[in-house]
Amino acid sequence: MLQRQTQTATFWRDQFEVAPDDLDFTYNLLLDAQAPRTLSDLSIALISEYVRKEDAKIQSELSKGELYQPRNHYEVGQKLVFPAMDFAVAEIVEVRTGQNPEHGEFKVISAKFADSDRVREFAAELASSHQLNNVNGDDFLSEDALLSPDEIYTLYQDEIDESILYALEESERSEDFVEVNGNWMLKDMLVDVHVGYLNIAEALIEVAGKPLGVKELMAELELDANVSEAMQVLSMNHALSQDDRFDQVNVGAEKKWFLKRLEPADALEAPIILRPTQPIYNRALLSVELLQVEWELDDEWGESSLSSELPAIVPSTSLTLTYPHRRCGTLPLNGRTRNFFPVAEQGRSLITFIDGRWGTHIPGWVSHEGRYVTGLAKWMEDHALPVGAYLTLERTNNANEIVIDYRTRRAKREWAPTATADLDHLRLRFEMTKVMVACEYDEHLIVAESEPNATAQLRLLLNQNRIELTQIVDRLVPELVKLDPRGTVHAKSVYSAANMLRRCAPGPVFFALISNRRFQDVGGGFFALS
Questions:
Q1: According to the 3-state scheme, what is the secondary structure of 235-271?
Q2: Domain positions in the chain
Q3: 299 near 307, Cβ under 8 Å?
Q4: What is the sign of the dihedral through the CA atoms of 158, 159, 164 and 166?
Q5: Neighbouring C-beta atoms of residue 265, cutoff 10 Å
Q6: Pairing of strands 254-259, 246-251
């Protein structure tokens, strides 16, 4: 059976583009429904329309003449339909005897096509087999061998959605359509929510001091009673989303509205020190030992993190506190922690930490795009946690509450590499000093600093002067090696120190180590000066 256009990957992946007629169809679909539709609903409906139009075209063309099949006898003046040529119609203008010993006796017909003066020749009365002899008009209209619109959408969802979404958002008619929480509707379907209602909503949230659901807000408003509650909710959500004062956040399984000015700055925008740089590097050069160290670090921006995600049934997990997260009072959303927090592709979720020592409740904000959870700066300060501290997370009966703790031990002063910013030479200088530690920690990750503000200034200068990560590592390793009597430094220590100056996953740091001829890999994750 010849394949129809809508049944091919080439059409949906390479040729499909939403036309003005398609937007008219979508507009009328929403107008008739008088209800919102998801992007998937709109996509499947449009695919169905393409299939319907294709069926109608085939029926129309088949009615204009006999379906061409090489085995049949044809006469001059007869009209034929050619399925292999997009159902083009042609009139037979000549019939002659064919000459080809392989096929025996047969005829050659000359056909003049209606849309041009071109004449083409085809075989007729052909005794040998040909695939077109196995096709009849009913085959083209039979649904048994065709992919359904749902099946087409499953196969080519990304390409179809992308094309339709672009048209809804960027075309000349984009102002006709609005999207609210994944639902599309006509702008004219929305209830008018004027600024007075939004001002009341702002006051209600401020008095409550916590996010409120849209129905909680609507209880104090008087929207158009002639419109269904579902449409009132969508209209209110849309109006709130268009006002910069409001932010939709996830609270448990619900989406609620909060005021941006009441949210921590670190929740609204990732601190600079948490924003990763992702330099290009040759990952194939990393040794098995370094890949193992990378997996142990489980950096949220590392390439090994995504493959090590813990299942949601695990009751507790542990992680090490790295310099960027210690400085910002945040936790990473990595393979070990991600499933302990709400999951979303973007936006923010409000959760509650419970201090495992004192039982204090601490509000936390999950930044899904930034891959971190903020809100723990005071907690870390209160417990004097160092970089490298082992932290634990434990689930509770409430999915929105997480117990956070650390592995305690008797407090004592420990030697730790302490950094001082050398602003003149754009580098960190290190020396060993004693710091008070009252928890278990990773001795390769622990690092301190004499002046955090000076370190921050050095970070800025390095960026302004476009100092590459390879240069940063080149300057750090000699400083760290001199602190060890054996004249070595662990790859974790280099990663920890490098992240004081440039937020980066382990892979590029380790590449800068192993590709530098000044450094020698002595095994066990340790490096020495050559």
A1: HHHHHHHCCCCEEEEEECCEEEEEEHHHCCHHHHCCC
A2: 5-61+144-184, 70-134, 190-262, 296-409, 423-433+443-529
A3: no
A4: positive
A5: 10
A6: antiparallel
The CATH T-level fold of domain 296-409 is: At1g16640 B3 domain (2.40.330)
CB 329 within 8 A of CB 380: yes
Region 190-262: CATH code: 1.10.10.10
- Smallest CA-to-CA distance from 42 within 141, 155, 177, 173 is with 177
Domain 70-134 in CATH 2.30.30.30? The answer is yes
pLDDT in tens, 10-56: 999 999 999 999 999 999 999 998 888 999 999 999 999 999 998 88
The residue whose two tokens read 């050398």 is 422
For residues 411-438, one letter each, b for 16 or more C-beta atoms within 10 angstroms of the residue's C-beta and e for the rest, the string is eeeeebbbbebeeeebbbebeeeebebb
In this structure, whether the domain defined by 423-433+443-529 belongs to CATH 1.10.10 is answered with yes
Tell me how far apart the alpha carbons of residues 166 and 171 are, in angstroms, rounded to a whole number.
7
Yes or no: say if 474 and 443 are a contact pair by the CB < 8 Å rule. Answer: no
Which pLDDT tens digit goes with each residue over 405-447?
999 999 999 999 999 999 999 999 999 999 999 999 999 999 9
**Alpha helices by DSSP H, 74-148:** 137-141
Quick one: tokens of 132? 């077109």
pTM for this one? 0.76
Helices (H) and strands (E) in the chain, counts: 16, 23
Amino acid identity for residue 153 in this structure:
Y
Residue type, 274: L
